Amino acid sequence: MGVNEKHKNSVFSLLFSDEDVLRELYSAIEGVELPPDTAISINTLSNALFMGQINDVSFTLGNRMIVLIEHQSTINPNMPLRLLMYVARVYEKISDRMDRYKTTLEPIPEPIFIVLYNGQGSYPEHSVLRLSDAFKDTAGLRSGGGEGPALELVVHVYNINQGYNPAILEKCETLGGYSVFISKIWEFRATMGLEEAVVAAVRYCVENDILKVFLETNSTEVINMLFAEWNQEEALTVRYNEGRNEGKNEGKEENAKQVLDFIAKGYTLEDIQRELTATVQSHNNMLFAE
C-alpha cells in the first residue's frame, strides 16, 4: 500500500510508509519477531476524514492489532486524548457499520499507542502517559471502590535521541538512521542556517551510508519537508515568547482580577494557586498543541 498523500506531510511518515520498515519498527519496539509475511495494512486517516487532526502512522497487524505511532519533538501531555479521538475514527473506518448491531460479539483489533520523541529537551528513555491522568477530581461522586477508571488509554513514549534506547535503534536500522539524521541537523543548526543544516545533514548521511537510498531518492522532498516543519516550530516558539512579553502587564491585571474574584467566592490560598496554575497550563497546551 503506497503513501497516503493526504495525510500528515512529514519526513517521518514518508520514511515509515513501507510495510517492511513498519514490521522492523514494531519488532524493535515490542521485542518480538514478526515473520516477513505478517500482513500489514496502512490505514492512516486522510485530512478529509479527520478534519486536520491527523497522525503520523497508523496500521493494522494481521487484522489483530491497530498500531498508532506519533513522532514528537515536543512532548504533549494531551496525547492520550488526541489518540483516543483518532483511534475511534480508525475503528469506524476499518469496521463494517452493521457489525456493531450484531447479537454476537464482533472481534476487533487491539490498539497500541506509541510516541517516538527526539526533541532537544531532557526526557527519559521510556515513559507512560495515561488518559486517566487528565480526569477531573471526582471525590464524593463515586463510592471509592477498587475499580479503576471506566475509560483508559495508555501511551508509551520512547526517547529515540542518540544515546537512548540503543537496543531499539540497533534492531530497527531505519529508526536508528533517522535518529542520526535528526541529531546531525541539530548539530549543524548550531553553526549555520536551517536550510544549510538540513542539506549538510543529508550530505553527511548519504556519504556515511545512513538512509542513503531513501535520501537519494527523496532528497528534494525531504529538504523541503524538514525546512517547512522546523520553520513552523521555530516560528511558534518566537510567537509564544513574544506573546509572553507583550502580555505581561495585561496578564498581571487579569490575574489580580481573578484572585479578587476567587477571594470573594471564599477560595483558600491553596485553591487560588491551583486555579491559576491550571489556567497557565491550559494556555500553554493551546499554544503548543500540534
Describe this protein's structure.
With 290 residues, this protein is of the alpha/beta class. Helix content is 50%, strand content 12%. The chain has 10 helices and 6 strands; from the N terminus they run ααβαββαβββαααααα. α6 (173-189) packs across α7 (194-207) and α7 packs antiparallel against α8 (212-246). The longest helix is centred in the C-terminal third of the chain and has 35 residues, at 212-246. 23% of the residues are buried. Residues 1-8 and 48-53 have low confidence and may be disordered.
Q: What are the defining features of this structure?
A:
disordered N terminus, alpha/beta, 290 residues
State the end-to-end CA separation. 27 Å
Number of helices: 10
- The gyration radius over C-alpha positions equals 22 Å
**N-to-C order of helices and strands:** HHEHEEHEEEHHHHHH
pLDDT averaged residue by residue: 79
Number of strands: 6
Largest sheet: 6 strands, mixed
| Shape designation | globular
User: What is the strand arrangement across the widest sheet?
Assistant: 1-2-3-4-6-5
What class would the helix/strand composition place it in?
A: alpha/beta
Oligomer: single chain
User: Percent of residues in helical segments?
Assistant: 40-55%
Proportion of β residues?
Answer: 5-15%
